[in-house]
Hints:
This protein is α/β, with parallel strands linked by helices. 42% of the residues lie in helices and 14% in strands. The chain has 15 helices and 10 strands. The longest helix has 15 residues, at 195-209. The N and C termini lie far apart (50 Å).
Amino acid sequence: MTKHKHYTGLIDRYRDRLPVSATTRIISLNEGNTPMIQLQNIPRMLGKDVDIYVKFEGLNPTGSFKDRGMTMAVTKAVEEGSQAIICASTGNTSASAAAYAARAGIKAFVLIPDGKIALGKLAQTLMYNATIIQINGNFDKGMELVKEVANHAPVTIVNSINPFRIDGQKTAAFEIVDDLGFAPDYHCLPVGNAGNITAYWKGYTEYATDRVCGNRPVMCGYQAAGAAPFVAGKMIDNPETVATAIRIGHPQSWDFAWAAQKESGGWFDKFTDEQILAAQKMLSQYEGIFCEPASAASLAGAMQDIASCKIPEGSKIVCTLTGNGIKDPEIAMQQCADAKPVTIDASLDAVKRAILDCL
Ligand code: AN7
């Protein structure tokens, strides 16, 4: 019998590079270890010789990359004796916080913009039994309130201004290098509050410093056109996009994200809702990978920059798909409004006709 090691989550896997001790109680749902899937059909359609891998973070326990940071943040909150956590969220952070609080046996409070979070994220956050506080304001306003209220109530903030969140999320870069055997030339990802680009850059930098990999990738951060403060070069007040996850105008990790861009020689760019939705549909119909709209900004960006040769042929590219498409069923149904299921008689003849009509 070969010695078998049951996977127990990213803190256990990367504990040498994370702020835990041998006695720390780890709050985990076995997050991380997500698949790197090489795209096969889209590169061919682009007519370019590039290797594009997607890191499918939608396969984390609550369906987004937030679980990486949350396992670490909640582990440390519990270690420090906290009984309650709080966050502002466009949906995914709240779902993740709620799940890890449930796992730890502590309370979670989440502030969400009224009516502006995807249905699946609301449903899961309710199921995990968090206290949901809807505000008639956007994410940025919620973030402001969370920072204030933490001075007046015994709650630990688990937004990515909590440095343990960044530490947990940097493990995605470790996994990519460990999986490929090298760091990619380009790393493309959606940018909202900018915690994730900060975390990836930290992870790649730690591995490069320790010579686990030889290079660090060029970091390409993609935003929604209506919510693109990094492209504008200044904070914006009324962000709007169909990709509600990244409907953020005042990113908290502003300076860190600019450092990642400058040090890596990378860039920020923005894409319309139509471009983002087209990329989401392409990934689904040509590769069988269903991510949420915000996640598809990474592929929209990669496709544009490959087509223009800003990302040259021969490059190895990783796109992070930050969340699962199932979280936002309303957008998916709108995307497929023209492909409504046909209803027919429950007879062999009718089914046969329905099939033959489509071939
Ligand atoms: C699917 O949940 O900010 O640039 O409150 O859910 O690290 O903020 C979500 C962000 C990309 C942007 N893709 O990442 C929240 C929240 C998805 C996301 C982002 C988010 P950051």
